[in-house]
Design goal:
This protein has 306 residues and is α/β, with parallel strands linked by helices. The protein is built from 9 helices and 13 strands. The chain has a 9-stranded mixed sheet with strand order 5-4-1-8-9-10-11-12-13, sandwiched between helices. A hairpin with a 6-residue loop joins strand 2 and strand 3. The radius of gyration is 18 Å and the shape is globular.
């Protein structure tokens, strides 16, 4: 079981006319919990969600896929909203109406890993609560999932993100995030610097070019499979779910920092190929709609044997 802590919200995605919006359940951490559950890894989502129409939509969507939803204590209770529009290539941009004022993260017995990131590690006062949980967890997975519209300057954000990277065992980051944080630096070079801060594994996602992984022993690029892109909403979260599912199946979570760092190159390649396949299917359909295990077809052969 993997515990995910972070925002769950309603994504209102604009149609091509820019005037009509369709509501989809969303939120980066919520998407990861959903993806894990659909793949067959039990997930618990600690989040802030309201007893309103959007909250009912998001909650029903998560529970239907088997996510164990745990509302976190907070002084306010309305469900947050993200407005999203996509360009001609299906790339999404966002505008948020969100509060993240949680006051606690209850422990979950039997969890092998804590995953968090995105707005949950950015927006105060809840970000401080989440960061304390990252420091206390036996194994931590982190995706900074930078949101420039809600962030300070890149210079300001670098210190926060790198502090949280140092608390993590597994880090997934997109090349877009790194381009915003470090515009004049090669993303793999920056990932190598992040690896030196303490994680066992740092993965940079490269959109249609796949992903690049770094451990102390290996630096490995794997291309993404061909796909027809409808939009990229939730693609990075689907990749994270696929990666964590693979690591869980390989018994490499649950405090096993050294085991992740020692993953052989063929295992690392299989993990990236599997995560790339999960993300590619998500890109082929609208909204954050990650695949179930049966939908993965041949990609299932990449999973470690039980």
């Amino acid at each position: 079981m993997i515990t995910v802590v972070g925002e769950a919200l309603a994504d209102l995605i604009a149609d091509r006319d820019g005037r009509t919006f369709t509501a989809h359940p969303g939120g980066s951490p919520a998407n990861v919990a959903l993806g894990l559950s659909r793949l067959g890894t039990p997930s618990v989502l600690g989040t802030r969600i309201g007893a309103d129409l959007f909250g009912a939509m998001v909650g029903d969507h998560l529970r239907e896929s088997g996510v164990d939803l745990r509302p976190l204590p907070a002084p306010t209770a309305d469900t947050s909203v993200a407005f999203a529009a996509t360009d001609a290539d299906g790339m999404a941009r966002y505008d948020f109406r969100i509060s993240w004022d949680i006051t606690g993260v209850p422990p979950v017995d039997g969890s092998e890993c804590l995953h968090t990131g995105s707005l949950a590690t950015l927006l105060e006062p809840g970000a401080g609560v989440v960061e304390a949980a990252m420091a206390a967890a036996a194994t931590t997975s982190y995706d900074p999932n930078v949101r420039p519209s809600l962030s300070g300057s890149p210079e300001h954000e670098r210190a926060r993100v790198e502090r949280q990277v140092a608390l993590s065992d597994v880090v997934k980051v997109s090349e877009e995030d790194l381009a915003w944080l470090h515009p004049d630096e090669d993303p793999v070079d920056r990932a190598r610097h992040w690896l030196a801060l303490g994680p066992a594994l740092v993965v940079v996602t490269l959109g249609p070019r796949g992903a690049h992984a770094l451990t102390a022993a290996h630096s490995l690029h794997r291309p993404g499979p061909p796909t027809t892109v409808v939009d990229t909403v939730g693609a990075g979260d689907a990749f994270t779910a696929g990666l964590l599912h693979w690591l869980s199946r390989a018994d490499l979570l649950d405090g096993a920092h050294g085991s992740i760092a020692d993953l052989p190159q063929d295992g690392l390649a299989a993990a990236l190929d599997f995560a790339n396949a999960v993300a590619a299917i998500t890109c082929s359909r609208a909204g954050a709609d990650p695949p179930t295990a049966p939908e993965l077809g041949e990609a299932r052969s990449l999973l470690p044997a039980r």
